[in-house]
Amino acid sequence: MQRIHFDTEHNLFRESFRTFLQKEVVPHQERWEEAGVVDREVWAKAGEMGFLLPWADEAYGGLGLKDFRYEQIMSEELAYINEPGFMLPLHSALCGPYITEYGNEEQKQRFLPAIIRGECILAVAMTEPGAGSDLAGMRTSAVDKGDHYLLNGSKTYISNGLLSDLVIVAAKTDPENKHAMGLFLVERGMPGFERGRKLKKLGMHSQDTAELFFNDVKVPKANLLGDGKAGFIYLMQMLAQERLTNACGAVAGAEAAFQATLEYVKERKAFGRAVADFQNTRFKLAEMRTQIDVAQVFVDRCVMDHNEKKLTAEVAAEAKLFTTELLGRVVDEGVQLHGGAGYMWEYPICRMYANARIQRIFAGTSEIMKEIISRGLKL
Ligand SMILES: Cc1cc2nc3c(=O)[nH]c(=O)nc-3n(C[C@H](O)[C@H](O)[C@H](O)COP(=O)(O)OP(=O)(O)OC[C@H]3O[C@@H](n4cnc5c(N)ncnc54)[C@H](O)[C@@H]3O)c2cc1C
After folding, report:
1. Which of 253, 249, 251, 235 is nearest to 364 (CA)?
2. Which helix (H) or strand (E) segment is 150 a member of?
3. Domain span(s) for CATH 2.40.110.10 in the chain
4. Of 37, 107, 125, 281, most Cβ neighbours within 10 A?
5. In this predicted model, what pLDDT tens digit does every residue of 14-54 receive, in sequence order?
6. CATH, domain range 123-228
């Protein structure tokens, strides 16, 4: 189905990002997968090309492209090549906005230029061994010591955990109030800030997901984002954009899995005919095509609503829920239609299947999405 919300400049941007991926990412994917981490240099190259925080003001080195369609395009293109480790959207669409939205002018001047150049890689650390969905249950604490906060605790499953130079860390700031939380800019090299092991995962093998530890880290007050008690609200406000970003990538991932399957079933023969000739195959593909088209229209509309600041947390949750569940179904059917080949790592559908599973879990599980949507129903 033809999409109608992109203009010529978006199409040119897509071409340019696609060329960048073909040159700087695709040739390294196998190696990154083996290494469990992407090359640091790819971040600087993306920065050089203007692909990091393109929406940021020119004063900080951005392009001033305040239009979420550019972030959508980059999430889609990364999904089309099935690259889960180079988490450009995490840096550009998820973490960067915390600094522009809640940072003061001094923080923006101090950090944004290097972030936009790709020299300062970002991560956000909310999840803890004992608190994921229930963020208010986190135990990491930051105690006010006058000119600094003393940060103690640990985080787990943190994307860009090893490569990141600046981590936005959520920590409790008032033992009496479980929702009082601050967001702290913890820099590489701060004494007491340690990285744990790179975690072994079902998929996303090129991503350096890791544990982080904070032992008496002295975080200067100048590294607190906004109000030291309002971090929980900031997280909730930012999660809508995060979920829309997930939705953009998920529907594109479903499209990629659909295309890979379509190609395979035309080539593969069984009982003297192409697998594509079986009615079951055609019906499965027809169902996928329909659901992807419907999801795409919905996501494109959400992107335009977000551009007008009209996207609600509930609708962003609907987008994440629907598209990540769809992605799960499409990769699963895709593997099935590939037969044994679908279980082999050398086939793209196998990697897509492994990489997709997390989409229904991170940035809020499907169950949490349903909670958010149902709260909006005021039952
Ligand atoms: C590869 C990867 C990358 C990640 N990257 C990051 C990152 O960069 N930063 C970060 O902070 N976190 C990150 N996470 C963490 C991720 O966001 C959490 O794993 C996720 O939010 C779920 O939390 P949990 O693992 O504690 O699961 P739990 O909260 O323990 O959930 C277990 C089950 O209980 C269900 N459940 C929980 N509460 C409810 C409820 N109220 N109603 C119904 N069911 C419920 C859940 O849906 C789930 O099915 C990452 C995780 C992974 C695996």
Report:
1. 235
2. strand 148-158
3. 123-228
4. 125
5. 999 999 999 999 999 999 999 999 999 999 999 999 999 99
6. 2.40.110.10
